[in-house]
Each structure stands twice: as C-alpha cells, then as structure tokens.
Design a protein that fits this description.
By secondary structure, the chain is α+β, with helices and mostly antiparallel strands. The protein has two domains: 57 residues, Orthogonal Bundle (Arc Repressor Mutant, subunit A), CATH 1.10.10; 78 residues, Glutaredoxin (3-Layer(aba) Sandwich). Strands 2-3-1-4-5 form a five-stranded mixed β-sheet, with helices on one face. A hairpin with a 2-residue loop joins strand 4 and strand 5. Helix 1 packs across helix 3. The radius of gyration is 17 Å and the shape is elongated. The model has no long low-confidence stretch (mean pLDDT 95).
Amino acid sequence: MARIDEKTTSEIVAAHDARPELLVQILASIVKRFGWIPEETVRQLASELNLSRAEVHGVVEYYHDFRTSEPGQHIVRICQAEACQAMGSEKLTAYAEKTLAMSLNNTEDDITLEPVYCLGNCACSPAIMIDGKTFGRVNEQRFNELIDAMRGDN
C-alpha cells in the first residue's frame, strides 16, 4: 500500500469539497487508498475540516473498518455474530488465534486477524473473509486450506 502523505490527504478532502459533514466518506476514501488512518491524518483532517481532533477520532473509533494501525498485507476476518457463534465461530476463532499465533485485532507476519459482526452469510455459518472474499461453512481443515491458498502454499 502507498504511504499516507499530507498532499494526498488534502486532495481527498478537496474531492469532498472540504465538507465536515462528509467526514465518514473522507475517512472511507483514505482507508480504501491506504488501509488505515494514522494519528497525523486525524490531526490534519481536524484542521482542514475545522473539527476538533476528538470529533475526528470519535468517528474513526466508532466504525470498525477505520483502523488506526497499519494492517498486514492479508486481512482475515472471522464472523462473531450470533448465527456464526451458534455454528462454532468461537471455536474457529480460538483455532485461528492458535494457528496464526496471534489474538484478534493484531498483525503478525503480514496477516491481520480481526473480528467482524456479520458477513451476511448466515446460512453458511461459520463464515470468514480473507482479503475481501467471503467463505462459508469454515471448519478447522477448511481454514487451513484457505490460509495456505492465501499464502500461496497450495
């Protein structure tokens, strides 16, 4: 991913007419382009949109897709919603944490592991998402296959 710089952030703000009411859309554009929102960008947005840093930070923290640390090259999300929990996502999450040697909301070896609260694939629970692609009926064996394919180990 490209490095975040002040010029590009200013261009994104300008593309949204520097309208503070479009903060969510501005943040979404930054995340789409860079993958995360560092503290320097929060300060810059506050200044350019005439908002307090607390206002910008509050929006960043409210939405789970707005991360404040740089993600790994691969993002693995495991659904934690009720339907997936009923079908074993808690066990799958524990297995993923053990297999990937990390806990949720962390990055190791260029993989970020995150919870997600519904992938819209309830009929095929438990569901996971890897790099934006959703997979259903994931058990431990299928998880291993998907991670190996993601890494190019297949």
